[in-house]
Structure formats: C-alpha cells, structure tokens
C-alpha cells in the first residue's frame, strides 16, 4: 500500500481497543467463574450422607434481599466462600444467608434426591434448582408463613428435587431471627427413610422415658402428697414441651399453621422450664428453711425471667426473646449446680444426689444451647444433649432412693467385665471372643462377605518359663498381646485363647490377606527383644489361617485354623500355614 493512503498512526482510531480489552476481560472473568462452578461440582455418588457445609459456598446477604440472578452474579464475582464446617452456624439474629451447591449427575437419566434442612424453626427458606442458567425449580418453606411448606417430624424441612443429567446448581436463601444453623443433607429415598426411622426411634425413646418419669413421680405424689414430686412433674412436663417446640413436633402436633405460637413457643418454654426447675430445687432442698436469703433470690429470679420473656413477646421482639431465653437457661443450669453445692455445705443428705443430677443436666442443657447458639460445634449428639441430660437427671434423682441397689448393679457389671477380660494381657478372653465373634460370623454368612480366622501360638513358651522364669513368661505374653492389638485393625477381634495361644477374627478379609497379615506379625514377633544382654530371648510364633467357605459354624472355622496352626508347628514352627501357605522367610 502506498504511504500516501496509509493513515498515520496519530490519526488511527483507538477507541475500539479499550472496548475490546474490556470485552475480553469480561469474557475471561465469565469463563473463570464458570470454571470455578465446574470445579466445585460434586458427583452425586461422592456426596456423603452427612451435612454438606464443607461442600457448599456461602454468602451472607447484606442490604436488601437479593434475587436469584443477583445471587448468581455474586457467585461469579467471588462473593461466596467455601464452608468451613459440616454444619454452618451464624448465631442469633444473623443476616440472611445464601448457599450454593454444585452437583454433577453423571448418568443419562434424571435422579431424584431429597434436600433436608434439619432445623425446624427457620422463618423462611427459598430453594432454587438451576441448570445452564435456567431455573428448573423453586420452593419456599418456613414457619414465618402458614401457607409455606411445613417441616416433617424430626427431619425438619425436606424438599424433593429431580436432578437432570449433567451439572446442576442448588441455591438456598435462609433467614430467621432465631439461631441460624444449617445442617443440610442431600439424600436418596433410602437414606431419608433410614434417617426418619433413626429419628423416630430416638424421639420415641426420649419422650417415652420422659412420660414414664412423669407417671412415676405422679404415682409417688398421689401416694405421698409431697410437693417435690408435683414440682418435678411440672419441671419434666415443661422440658418436654420445650423439646417438642425446638424439634418441630409442636408445630406439627400442637399448633399447626400457627406461626405466631411457633415463633415464640421455643423461647417461652425455655424460660418456663428454667423457672419450674428453680421452683423444684427450692422445694427439694428446702431452701426456705435452709437459706431464706437464697430462697428469696430464687423467687426473684423466676419472676424476673417470666416478666422479661412476656415483655419481649408483647413487644414482638422475637430476636430479643430468643437471646434472653438462651441466656436465662444457661444461667439456670449454673444456678442449679450452685444450689447443690450450698446444700452439701449445709450437710443435707439428699444434696449430693441433687448436685450430681444438676451437673448432668447442666452439661446437657449447656451443650445444646451453646451448640445451637455459639461456642460449640453443632452435631446431632450436641443438639439432643439437653434431652438426654434431663433424662439422666431424672435417673439420678430416682436412684437416690435405691443407692444400695445401684452399688450392687455397678459391682455386678464390673465383675462381668472382669470375667470377659484376660487380666494378664488386657485382651478379651475366650468367652468375650465368642460373644463378639458370633454376630460378625452371622453377618458374614448372611451377606456372603469374606471372613478369616487366625490362630497364633508362641513357640517354645514352656522353655521360656523354664529357663527365664514365669515372670519373664508373663512379660513375653504381654509384649506379644500388645503387638497383636497394635497391628490388627479396629474391627478385628483379638483374644487370648488360652495359655500362649491367641485367636484373631478378621472381617472383610480373604485367606490371602490374612496370610500376609500373619507374615507381618511373625516378622514383628521375631524382632522383639526381651531378656537381658547376657541372656536374651529369641521369640517366634506359628500361625494357622482359615477362610470362611463351606463351614457351617464359627466353631468349624476356628477348628480349621487350629489344625493349620498344628501343621505349622509340626512343619518346624515360626511359619504361617493355611490355604495359601507361604514358606517362612529364612
């Protein structure tokens, strides 16, 4: 091209270059965001049945409520962060929270899953299912709207999702003035059914026990007409109502679709439970006569607690009601222990039982309160600790009238434990081995799973006793026992069979794997150094292996392993014999 018609550089258009650069930067950021989503997508089969907090991205909403598209834009912009705990927890009065979970259905057909959010007191939950930018599903739930989806007993809120092939995204927006914690699971129908049965059995046992305690104390009150039993009935009854309030059963059974009652039932019942507990302690410890000043303090604390909770309810300050209820219950549990210590200092005989019960209840109540609010990590055990703490408290108070029987039962249990343990080695004895091995054998037979038995015998043990003394023989048995316990897996059953002989049952283990394990044990036993430098002891052991096959019973399996053990000893000792017999090293 002639220079005359080529535009000079100073006159070339430059406005298009920054625009192109901006466009390229936007495309690059979009690609990086999509790559981040793809990287974080989890295969359905790889997701655990436990809470998925560590698999999710989280963003705390600030300002006005966001739409789904705005939340997706914040996700692309990096505003979401990966969860740091299995159960995400944000405290009382937290801002609404957005959660994101990318999942990958690697199959060719849609897959049904159920999204479970175990907490029942959440005011509003919005659930979105998105694929390729298109919203496939939207559901809403929560106790802030009577028309929204209600929780299921024990399970909390459960949403049915159909995940199409490929990668999908689940978005949740959750808000509540109550403690905001989010145990979220993505389960199939079998898993949700198993979880439902677990909760049904657990709650049935808990409520059945509480009702039995109430009935027991009611009969005592009818027969004895003593105020403490009546106070304890109201105390247990108030706890039962508080418990069914925060597990969601009350919203389903007692005040369905009544959102106002649901929002205030939990803090109200928590405070009533604390006040009735203080009334029970006041009468049980006879504080009116024992410590009149403390008696008046307890009455003032109870009346103040009731006044404050009703004021917050009247003013519709739900968040303040929840905070006050949690603080009051924590203070109540501490005061109960303090009252027990005062009663002991004044020499009350029943005070030691009350203190033990108060400590148990304090641990349970405090664990649940702190796990739900702040200070402790959430777990199902911590969440239900208050219920079982109160159950334990009731047991301790009931056992106060039968102390001698409790001591007798404790001594009997200790004797039974000793009868199942070899005192020298600390291993289970033959009786305990057979008790634990029976169910393992039955499971392997029913499921047709691998199972192997191993018999171990210390070579020339009689010579060790004769040449080095029985004390040294005991040291040899202890050293070998410790080695067996360290090398064997947690699910293996190891026992002292008798004398210098040991038995090991190996679930999910083939003959080849058992033989390899026996060879490692044989080498480690040979490497043990006992005795003195002037009179060392060289140890070795023989092993017999048998694998579950056509055996009709556990006894036949052990008998075959014993026969292989004798074969190893007859073949020269210090070797492993079995269906896949290995030649001894050296």
Report what the structure shows.
It is a single chain. This protein is of the alpha+beta class and 586 residues long. Helices cover 53% and strands 18% of the residues. The longest helix has 36 residues, at 189-224. It is flat and about 90 Å long.
Features:
alpha+beta, five-stranded mixed sheet, 18% strand, disordered C terminus
Task: Describe this structure in a few short sentences.
The chain is α+β, with helices and mostly antiparallel strands. The protein has 18 helices and 19 strands.
List the helices and strands and how they pair.
Blueprint: H1 16-40, E1 42-43, E2 57-60, H2 68-76, E3 81-82, E4 88-92, E5 97-105, E6 111-117, E7 124-131, E8 134-141, E9 157-163, E10 166-175, E11 179-182, E12 184-187, H3 189-224, H4 227-246, H5 249-253, H6 259-284, H7 287-290, H8 292-314, H9 318-345, H10 351-372, H11 380-383, H12 385-399, H13 403-419, H14 430-447, E13 451-458, H15 461-468, H16 470-487, E14 493-498, E15 501-507, H17 511-526, E16 530-531, E17 536-537, E18 541-547, H18 554-570, E19 576-577
Parallel strand pairs: 1-5, 18-19
Antiparallel strand pairs: 2-3, 2-5, 4-11, 5-10, 6-9, 6-12, 7-8, 7-10, 13-15, 13-18, 14-15, 16-17
